[in-house]
Amino acid sequence: MVALDGDYFRALETPRMAALAPNLIAAAFPLMKLMPARYILDRAVADGALEAGMRIVETPSGTFGMALALLSAARGYRLTLVTASSLLDAKYKARLDGLGAQMIITEDHAGDGDQLKRLQRLDHIRRAEPNCFWPRQYDNPGNALAYARLAEQLVRTVGEIDCLVGCVGSGGSLCGTGMFLRAVFPHIIVIAVDTHRSILFGQPAGKRLLRGLGNSILPGNLRHDLIDEVHWVGAYPAFSEARRLLREHGIFQGPTSAAAALVGRWAASTWPGARIAVIRPDEGHRYAETVFDDAWLGALPGWPCS
Predict the structure, then answer these.
(1) Taking Cα atoms as reference points, which of 296, 193, 169 lies closest to residue 239?
(2) Antiparallel, parallel or unpaired: β 55-58 and 78-84
């Protein structure tokens, strides 16, 4: 079990460094959220807040839930995930079920993830079972601190970095990596990638087709003071970019990663003399029957290739 946790999971949370342009490097992860999930759980064990066999509860909007499910299965924790109906497809749910995660699904007619409703449900669970552990990915400082290793990998691979691009959901990956890189390179420009109808940078909450970034609450790990620019990317450009990256670079990643790559390409062409790094958090397997399926895309209203 120790070998599995130490070697297999470390491979999933280690990015492939891929050059997308002469001045653009992408840190492309199989499952980036394993990095903060493992860091948070390890710190909780060291502090005595998490013991063998305890229940873990969380309200994930993306792959943090999968990371917790993998770790819980390997380490013998019980896991309860409170998620919204708009965030969960059948195959993803089947994977979580297979890992032994208990799923509580709230109805989300607005399509914005309804994080407030999920937090209320989680609070009810914690009151009923006080002896459980809540990782608090949105507000736990360990989320951002976990990305010291990514910052180190980027410096070892690229050297001096002039610009960092990444999507924002919890704020952990971009703000954590940006915090460590800015300590080394004070001039660095940090660009956040969000999507429309996310409140993170002042838009009203609403239905979002592009998932894995954006939020309907303001997380504590989002540090506006670290961010120099915000770019909003819609679902259709992200879907198109994901397919282009597979076709032209052989990189099979999800639309969240593609949204970051799209802004990274813009930055690389805007500042050709700068060294740009872009964080790409997830692989594309979850989207094989949607984003990478011609029939599914063709059925979308207004899809340009329909």
Answers:
(1) 296
(2) parallel
